[in-house]
Amino acid sequence: MASVELDCKGLNCPMPIVRISRAMKELQVGDHLRVEASDPSFQSDIEAWVRKMGHDLKSFEESQGVQKVVLEKRA
Amino acid sequence: MSLTEDEITKLIDRLVEERVSKRLAGVEQDLAALRGMVKQGGGNVPEDRTTLVVFSGELDPLFGAFTIALGSVAMGMEVSMFFTFWGLNALRVSKKYAGKSIGEKMVAAMLPNGPKSVPTSRMNMGGAGPIFFKYLMGQRNVESLPSMIEMAQEMGVRMVACETSMTVMGITREELLPGVEFGGVATYLEDAAKSKVTLFI
Prior knowledge:
Chain A is of the alpha+beta class. Chain A contains 2 helices and 4 strands.
C-alpha cells in the first residue's frame, strides 16, 4: 500500500482538485494520497470531490492556513 | 364437518397461494409497465457530462468557463465546450487578413489576437484592466487563461467552434487552435441533451 504526497500550497481553485484527480489516477485502490493545500475553498471542495468520486477522506487538519488531508483511493 | 390437521394446513396453503398470486398479478403488471417506461426513456438518461456554451470573449467569463471545465474533468465528468461569437477569441491562435473581404478584415483588426490579449468585461480601461488583473492573478498564483485552455485540451475536453459565428466574424479554421472541432447547433444540442450540467457563459 503506497502513500504519496502532493503539495498544492499556493494553488487556487480549480487547480488543487485538478492536481489531486491526476495524482489519484496513478494510485492503486487502498493507496493513500497526502495533500497540503492553502486554497480557502479547499475543505468544501475536497469534501465534495471525495463524495462525487467515491474515495475516502481519512483525515482533515488545519493549522496556520495550511490544510492537510489524507485521502484513500477507493475505486 | 371436521377436518384433519393435514387438511387444514392444505386449505390454508391453498387460500394463501390464491391471495398472493392475485396480488402478485397486479404487481407484475405494474412492473411490466415500469419496464416499458424505463426502456422508452432509456436514451434520455443523462451522462455524467458538462456542456458549456462559451459566448463571451472576455477574460473573466472565459476564466469562469475554463474553471468549470477543468473542475468537471477533475470530478470525473466528460466536458463539451461550444465556442460561439466572442467566445471564439479563446481559441484564436493567429490572425489572417489575406483573402478576406474588407468587412472581415475590419472585424479581424478589432478582435483580440487570442486568449492572451482578451479584454475584461468590466474595468477594461482601454486595456489597462486586463494588465492589472493578470498581474494580480499572477501574484496570487491563479492559473492563467492560456494555460487553462492548454490543460483543458490535454485533459480531453471536447472543444467545438460554431461555424456560423465564424462566418459572421470572418474567422477561418486555420486561425483557431489545432484539434478544435467544427460544428453547429445540432452538435451542441446532442451533447447538451444528455448532459447533467449545461451553462451558457
